[in-house]
Amino acid sequence: MVRELNESDLPQLLALLRQLDQHPEYRTIAPESRSLDELRLELFDNPSYEAKPLVLVRNGVTCAYANLCSHHGEAFLEGPLLAEGVSPHEAEPLLAAIIELARSKYHYLDAFVGEANYRAQEALRLVGFEPFRTTYLYELPRQHQLPLTLHPGVRLELATEIELGTYRDLYRDTSDHWATRLAWDDEELLTRFDDPNVQLILAYLGSELVGHLELEFVPEEGLAEVAYFGVLPQARGQGVGRALLTRGLREAFADPAVELVMARAYDDERAACHALERLGFRLSHAVTALTLELT
Fold it and tell me: I want to staple 124 with a disulfide (CB 3.0 to 4.6 A). Which of 16, 128, 129, 173 is the partner?
């Protein structure tokens, strides 16, 4: 039986979340809370939360969870979280119900699950989702020895401001995939770059702006993340990417609270993967994105 999540389901949902924590191969987007009170607040008592959580109940036990969420007007799936022994076919009614909720409001529904989460991926495929991209997540701890030299032809600048049209052009032209920031208005971009926990590093060859790296600090978690990192196609192969990454690492580890730097690259960005690996980053895990057209 598929129905809406209610408060009596929270202990069994918490058990699913703890199973997720114990088995990295089950990785998927999921609620962040790990206590009953926090889950109740996150899923029921947050007035700005527009999600629609559903559960699959089998023999009186809540054995699967999925949730329709949105961000900047785009729909995405939280889950599916599947208990041990729940097959992809058994999860079909749960996902079909989520799809019907999404169909009245959205054109697409996306899901993001671990590359090794085979049951969840199969369940999503059974209801029509198709994989379109895998993202590789890399990590580098503080104790790693950083390179001592940068490419001499590359000039780097820690931006205090950037003309927004110039930023949008650079963002668009350094990747075939990035689109999120192009939908942001000027106020959203200005708010992002006014954030003291965000640094934007620009790279130049001569006077030409050819690359950028956006570094986001999460001091309470002891980490910094390379949120975006890209070089214009005509400037690749000249050491720009390595120079940007090295400067990003130096800026990150200049903060004594940062013990780990994270970065990501897509499956068709092998040059970015190689650049990260040459600097000592190690692959943590991979996430497969799947999408379903609803119209």
Answer: 129
